[in-house]
Amino acid sequence: QVQLVESGGGRVQAGDSLKRSCTHAGRTGRDEAMGWFRQSPGKEREFLATISWTTGATIYADSVKGQFTASRDYAKKTGYLQMNNLKPGDTAVYYCAASVGFSKVVSEYDYWGQGTQVTVSS
Questions:
Q1: φ, ψ for residue 69 (rounded to 5)?
Q2: Do 96 and 35 meet the contact criterion of CB atoms below 8 Å apart?
Q3: How confident is the model at residue 85 (pLDDT cuts 50, 70, 90)?
Q4: What is the mean pLDDT of residues 105-115?
Q5: Which of the 8 DSSP states describes residue 65?
Q6: 29 to 24, 26, 33, 66: CA distances (angstroms)
Q7: Angstrom distance (rounded) from CA 119 to CA 107
Q8: What is the mean pLDDT of residues 81-105?
Q9: How many CB atoms lie within 10 A of CB 104?
Q10: Are 114 and 3 in contact (CB under 8 A)?
Q11: What mean pLDDT comes out for the span 12-40?
């Protein structure tokens, strides 16, 4: 069973930065990539970024390209999402997820972290 443990949420001011982390606990299985998503009330879960565990290759949503950066520490089984210049519109619950593929599609992620609220005040 794959377990993903997230940290790094909270309340910040517009323009601030946050770095989120997500650690695999337990068996990692054949997970190829770690994805990052967010969901605001009344909206669908939105893809943000994904990173390949083995190659470090990344894909970003256009909405966060240049603002968010995904990275990973393979030895620590931990992925990171650096979020810069945060805006009130970035307020959401943020999730990490694991997939056997390298994808932007929410349904292709089998395991999910618990989610963490990020609130950006103006």
A1: -135, 125
A2: yes
A3: very high
A4: 94
A5: B
A6: 10, 9, 11, 31
A7: 26
A8: 95
A9: 15
A10: no
A11: 88
